[in-house]
């Protein structure tokens, strides 16, 4: 018995030390740079605040929406560039049952939970644990300790995000997490609002998009999955062949906000390709996740952004790679449950190029 008690005490002290090492850090802005390709990140919400790269004329442009000040990120309700967790996207009714225990979470979108709740991973300060600004492989790793019971979730979690600039114009993002003492759902993602024509270039409706998913997870009026997986053929959601984002958007109420089931079974799956004719920029996305939420900034309205530019609906698109929304309440979806001793890893690779 005494050995068991000593072990529990050691685990408790370990968790306290981990928590103390991650919390209480100053908010800053960190740049990783490789030639004329650079990414800036703040440790508030581990948010991407800029991605700079040249267009077909060699002109450098910023291709993500965002703000000029950290204070604006603190007050943001659109999740500009933010890391999403402990569970990205929606959990219906802000509740679920795991191992016979019913958990009630903190709702922040009506009766549902969105992106981890009012104090999700996008609304906390992360610790910068490793940082190499430039050189052949610039990167930054940020970590966050999420306590047992945070936003209603069971168990403590240690999470990390690593941003790396690889080769020419490649941005790697790797999410890692460990469940420290209890089984818990973990589904990390992030929310860059991409406009590869430039954050201040207007809407993305003329940009050409291809998504490598032939099915979607159907949702109800509150955007909660019903559990049904449906084919996209002959619907406005069909982007299997490249076509303009706005080609059929008028057939939807507000725009796109739906999870696609990716077709590939490879470890790193083709997710989507975006092309902007005016700038010549192309963005190719690959990920290890089974799904991607395609969102067209439907509820961004008169939002003052970087340089005073005012963002409007459809001024960007998001391709949020993840396990399906509300998976914890749908046994037919891939599982988001991580048990103690298991490692969670989700990798995303953005490759940028020029098409003249």
UniProtKB/TrEMBL annotation:
It catalyses: alpha-D-glucose = beta-D-glucose. The active site is at residues 191, 320. Residues 1-24 form the signal peptide. Its EC number is 5.1.3.3. Keywords: Carbohydrate metabolism, Isomerase, Signal. Pathway: Carbohydrate metabolism; hexose metabolism. The keyword Ribonucleoprotein does not apply. Beta-D-galactose binds at residues 89-90, 191-193, 257. Coiled coil: none annotated. It is an enzyme of class 5 (isomerase). GO terms for molecular function: aldose 1-epimerase activity; carbohydrate binding. The keyword Signal applies. GO terms for biological process: hexose metabolic process. InterPro entries: Aldose_1-epimerase, Aldose_1/G6P_1-epimerase, Gal_mutarotase_sf_dom, Galactose_mutarotase-like, GH-type_carb-bd. Belongs to the aldose epimerase family. PANTHER family: ALDOSE 1-EPIMERASE, ALDOSE-1-EPIMERASE. This is Aldose 1-epimerase. It comes from Nicotiana tabacum (Common tobacco). The lineage of its organism: Eukaryota, Viridiplantae, Streptophyta, Embryophyta, Tracheophyta.
């Amino acid at each position: 018995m005494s050995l068991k008690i000593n072990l529990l005490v050691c685990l408790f002290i370990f968790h306290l030390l981990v928590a103390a090492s991650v919390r209480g850090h100053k908010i800053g802005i960190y740049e990783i740079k490789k030639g004329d390709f650079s990414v800036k990140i703040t440790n508030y919400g581990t948010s991407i605040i800029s991605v700079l790269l040249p267009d077909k004329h060699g002109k450098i442009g910023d291709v993500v929406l965002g703000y000029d000040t950290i204070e604006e990120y603190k007050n943001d309700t659109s999740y500009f560039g933010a890391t999403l967790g402990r569970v990205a996207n929606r959990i219906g009714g802000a509740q679920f049952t795991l191992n016979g225990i019913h958990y009630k979470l903190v709702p922040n979108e009506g009766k549902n939970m969105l992106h981890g709740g009012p104090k999700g991973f996008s609304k906390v300060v992360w610790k910068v644990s490793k940082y190499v600004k430039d050189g052949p492989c610039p990167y930054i790793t940020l970590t966050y300790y999420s306590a047992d019971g945070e936003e209603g979730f069971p168990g403590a979690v240690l999470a990390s995000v690593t941003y790396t600039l690889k080769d020419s114009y490649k941005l790697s993002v790797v999410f890692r997490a460990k469940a420290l003492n209890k089984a818990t759902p973990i589904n990390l993602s992030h929310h860059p609002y991409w406009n590869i024509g430039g954050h201040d270039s207007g809407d993305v409706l003329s940009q050409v998009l291809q998504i490598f998913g032939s099915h979607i997870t159907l949702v109800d009026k509150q955007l909660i999955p019903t559990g049904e997986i449906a084919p996209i053929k002959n619907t406005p959601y069909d982007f299997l062949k490249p076509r303009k984002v706005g080609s059929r958007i008028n057939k939807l109420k507000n725009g796109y906000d739906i999870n696609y089931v990716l077709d590939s079974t490879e470890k790193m799956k083709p997710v989507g390709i975006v092309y902007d004719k005016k700038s010549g920029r192309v963005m190719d996305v690959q990920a290890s996740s089974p799904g991607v939420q395609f969102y067209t900034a439907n509820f961004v309205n008169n939002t003052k952004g970087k340089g005073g530019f005012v963002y409007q609906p459809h001024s960007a698109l998001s391709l949020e790679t993840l396990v399906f929304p509300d998976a914890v309440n749908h046994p037919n979806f891939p599982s988001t449950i991580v048990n103690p001793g298991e490692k969670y890893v989700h990798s995303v690779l953005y490759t940028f190029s020029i098409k003249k």
